[in-house]
Model the fold of this input.
Amino acid sequence: EEAATSKGAHHIREQFTPDLCIIGEPSGSSRITLGYKGRIVLEYQLTRPVAHTARPEPSAGALGAAFWSRVDAWTQERNQGLTAAFDQVWAHLRAINTETDHLTESVRVALSLRLPPTCSPEEALENLQALADADAKIHAHGLERAYQGDRNNPLVRGMLAAIREVTGERPGFVLKTGTSDMNVVGKVWRCPIVAYGPGDSNLDHTPNEHLPLDEYQRAITVLRHFIEHL
Done:
């Protein structure tokens, strides 16, 4: 299931209690993914009476742009001294739109944050609300906490052995800066969990997204070897 809301994962997490979990996500056939950053999606809306452009008052659009600048500055300040991408808060401006009926003018700023394990969505939302103008409305959704699994368990050991046997390569670990179904089910199932699959995750949701067929076959063989040697 490929859905931004992970609605399938939200449904099945209450239906099953697995002993082990492998999520199909591109990691490369010789690597396994142990964790994903958290997320919050936010919309800032502000409406105000139209002011003449000869007046010094900032327009709604200027206020929206200033809000985004404060968010960006907050993330940069919070990330000081942190070198690993998985440990940083990343802010992305998704859209900024203005409109007017010539009596009022409004601005809508859509943004998202990728969050490390040290910053919960609730903490991020509290900071964003403090950065917003007093008369702005803030709507948040898609709140997911970061998740990082353990590497010392039978699932990880079995997958590492399968990768070595099938590919002849030294397996590696990955911590992803995106968010996946692991964030949804991991905190509920509390079982050993990894993500694995062929392909380059940097190409996800891009025009160049593709899958090398030889790597696809290797990943199938790795999973078969793992299952047969459980």
In short: The CA atoms of residues 156 and 192 lie 8 Å apart. The radius of gyration is 22 Å. Strands lie at 21-24, 31-36, 38-49, 90-100, 104-115, 137-144, 147-148, 172-176, 193-196.
